[in-house]
Design a protein that fits this description.
Blueprint lengths: L12 H27 L4 H24 L9 H21 L5 H8 L2 H13 L5 H18 L10 H20 L6 H23 L6 H27 L2 H4 L6 H13 L5 H32 L4
Helix pairs in contact: 1-2, 1-9, 1-11, 2-3, 2-8, 2-9, 3-7, 3-8, 4-7, 4-11, 4-12, 5-6, 5-7, 6-12
């Protein structure tokens, strides 16, 4: 398969769902590794460097021998760079937040991404969002307020980092939509790693702390692998099943994040985190259901009369 083409779609929803769950586990592993490494005293920006350097090395090793220089030939290079910067910004803000917040809290706030994508699709993609979907967005943001509880003594400033990370991730998804069918997944993966390594290398040198201990070194090595594998599984999953089928399964990540936080860091989210997360997830699922309904209506309108 050349760098400018995509693999054909195949209707295998079971395989798609399985790959989605593997992706979710990989993303949970990334955050778990990052939180552990931060607690070991490594600077967050150095950890971000390890995450993207490993990602870049794997993509280059796997695809450059097959694709050659065509891997770098993006039809919209400026959009590829912008997309990579949004992904990098999301990772940096998320890893900074993990110094202070539990995994369950950061993952709950991250589930605002579908709501933010819906809201941002109006100015950036020119899409129409009706009153029902705006209501779902507002209810979801109310769920975030329940999680962070401003004014009730539980507020930590680091939740702003998580909100920023979710917003940057939403912008990443918007730019990914703009690149759909324009460049191959392999080219997009390559640019995501390349741009991050170029930006982070001088920063990592300035803040560098040499990792010590076998487990710490191992996690520095494999965090990039989890990043690459997670994005690969997520991409391939959409070749086997439509996004409307896969979207609800992404919410299983909060279960894995809470479990990881409890087993590894002895963190237990309180009632309000679960309550707020339930509202955010419920709003996201409503948006998903509403968009499926609107898509079916649009298909029916386009179908020729019998």
């Amino acid at each position: 398969m050349s760098a400018g083409t995509e693999a054909p779609r195949s209707d295998r929803p079971g395989t798609g769902i399985l790959l989605m769950q593997i992706a979710v586990l990989c993303f949970t592993a990334i955050d778990t590794c990052a939180k552990y490494l931060v607690q070991q005293g490594l600077p967050p920006l150095e950890i971000v460097f390890f995450r993207y350097f490993g990602h870049f090395v794997i993509v280059a090793a796997v695809y450059l021998p097959l694709e050659g220089m065509t891997l770098l030939r993006a039809n919209k290079p400026k959009t590829q760079v912008l997309r990579a910067l949004f992904l990098l910004g999301s990772t940096i803000l998320n890893f900074l937040a993990l110094q202070y917040l539990h995994l369950g809290v950061t993952s709950a706030i991250f589930f605002t991404i579908p709501l933010l994508v819906c809201a941002l699709s109006v100015p950036f993609l020119g899409e129409q969002v009706g009153p029902r979907r705006w209501a779902a967005i507002c209810v979801g943001l109310l769920g975030v307020l329940i999680i962070v509880r401003p004014g009730l003594g539980a507020l930590h400033w680091a939740w702003l980092l998580s909100i920023g990370a979710a917003t940057s991730a939403a912008c990443y998804m918007i730019t990914t939509r703009k690149l759909a069918g324009v460049d191959s997944t392999e080219t997009s993966q390559f640019y995501a790693g390349l741009v991050a390594v170029i930006v982070l290398t001088p920063i990592a040198i300035m803040v560098w702390e040499t990792p010590t201990g076998g487990l710490t070194i191992l996690l520095c090595v494999i965090i990039g692998f989890f990043g690459w594998l997670g994005h690969q599984c997520l991409t391939i999953a959409h070749r086997f099943a439509p996004a409307s089928t896969l979207a609800p399964y992404s919410y299983s990540q909060i279960l894995w994040m809470v479990l990881s936080g409890y087993v590894i860091f002895a963190n237990v989210p309180d009632f309000w985190v679960f309550a707020g997360a339930g509202i955010v997830i419920g709003s996201g699922l409503y948006l998903w259901k509403r968009e499926r309904h609107l898509a079916r209506e649009g298909t029916a309108l386009e179908r020729p009369p019998k």
